[in-house]
Amino acid sequence: MTYELAHDPQFADLMTATSHLTGKTINRFTHIHQSASDLVKKVKMLRMIGRKTGSCFQRCVGLDAMNAVYTTTFEMDQKLGTDYFQKARKFIGMVQEKDLMIGGAMTDAKGDRGLRPSQQNDPDMFVHVVERREDGIVVRGAKAHQTGSANSHMLLVMPTLNMTADDADYAVSFAVPSDEKGIVHILGRQTNDSRKFEGGVDRGNLGYGIVGGEALVVFDDVFIPNERVFMCGEFDFSGMLVERFASYHRQNYGGCKAGVGDVIVGASAALAQAHGVQDASHVRDKLTEMMHLTETLYCGSIACSSEGMPTRSGAYLVDPLLANVTKQNVTRLIYEIGRLSQDLAGGIVATLPSQKDFKDERVGKYLEKYMKGREGVSAEERARLIRLLENISGGTALIESMHGAGSPQAQRIMILRQGNLPAKAEYAKVLAGIKEDEVLKKIRS
Ligand code: SF4
Ligand code: FE
To answer: For the chain, what are the domain ranges?
Structure first.
């Protein structure tokens, strides 16, 4: 879908952009954001594709990784005199030219979560450099929960934490073909995923997965040539890379998840119609609440994008505080949207018989008779909506909303850091008469 829509003139404004590197028209999923309007268009694009897939469409991770690497390497080179930015530019230019899908890889295996990378008993719990050669580096470790990795052309790897001097070997960023020698993708299971192999109605969402086909990606001594290395030991900048990637990725969730929310609301409304209860006041109220929650998510993504500011490289970054608030809302509101949809749909979401029974010679006729909705709604039509709703409102889809783009606690750390608590205490103290307003004091004096 991310390729097809980019070639459809109807979607050109959202799906394509003008490369600042070449001036050519490119797929927006390979673009380096040049304005706040670019950031807003990204969110609108994600919502639109969310509606068309009812799923994760995977390509935002690489887009966010490229923007984070681009803006961070610029500042690294300025401070340290390194040459990473030119290499990043060249890599991104190639990605734009070929319209490649890039898997952004951040989350490490982590081992003992209470220990830093260099303190682990097993040194491979975080991806690290094991050998430095004249022509490149050799890396080892594993990245977990990697969205779309197996079907990406290349992976763009970043550190997962702010590193210290002791962890310098773990401050490493690089790009590598996803089928490079030594890389192994071990795919995760998703709720009811084996139904996909059965085909037909029980697949729920007919064309797409439940979330992004996440995998554990093992780097078993993989060689990375120098021109694809974008950080190697500059631990001081690992925090910036992590925070920027996280902010760009948290920006997305009120886009893609609002798109999926639209489908959940739509499936719930269509089922209410099928059940003949569409005019009941509590049904209309629940649908209204679901729309309110969906638009609330979208508001956050639009806000952090329109408040975006240029970084030193000239590329735009979202407002980090608002982006983190957006993702934090997703960890809660998607559950509430799903809960309301299941309330409306009824217990049938959990008890619908198999499509094989619908086709069965002996019992199929009973299902046709007893599973139909109001006049004019066949049992199969109702079953399709129920299976779709089951697919997108529960199981793996919910966990993805909780932990995708970072777990809730990661956002809370950023909210506390960015929220400027001391300033808020000042506002209160001034109004309580404990302190004078500094600005007024100056004017009056
Ligand atoms: Fe993109 Fe959303 Fe999937 Fe993340 S969860 S890759 S933002 S579609
Ligand atoms: Fe995700």
So the answer is: 61-238
Nearest CA among 3, 34, 13, 104 for reference residue 63: 104
Architecture of domain 61-238: Beta Barrel (2.40)
∠ CA 115-157-77 to the nearest 5 degrees?
Answer: 95
Task: Return the ligand 1 atom nearest residue 148 CA.
Answer: 6
- Residue type (1 letter), 38: D
- CA-closest residue to ligand 1 atom 5: 56
Instruction: Report H helices in 162-237.
Output: 195-198
Q: What's the rounded mean pLDDT across residues 190-204?
A: 88
Of 10, 62, 98, 3, the residue nearest 252 (C-alpha)? 62
Which residues are 105's β-sheet partners? Answer: 157
268 burial type by CB count under 10 A (0-12 exposed, 13-18 middle, 19+ buried) = buried
Active-site choice (214, 234, 243, 390): 214
Residue pair 389/264 in contact (Cβ under 8 Å)? The answer is yes
Q: Which atom of ligand 1 is nearest to the CA of 50?
A: 8
- Is 150's pLDDT higher than 90? yes
Task: Count CB-CB contacts under 10 A for residue 108.
Answer: 21
User: What is the CB < 6 Å shell around ligand 1?
Assistant: 56-58, 60-61, 147, 212, 252, 256, 404
| The model scores a pTM over 0.90 | yes
List the beta bridge partners of residue 25. Answer: 18
Q: Give pLDDT tens digits for 56-80.
A: 999 999 999 999 999 999 999 999 9
* pLDDT of amino acid 209: 82
Residues 205 and 388 sit within 8 Å (Cβ to Cβ): yes
Report the SS3 class of residue 69.
helix
Q: Which ligand ends up closest to the CA of 61?
A: 1
- Ligand 1, atom 3: nearest CA belongs to which residue? 56
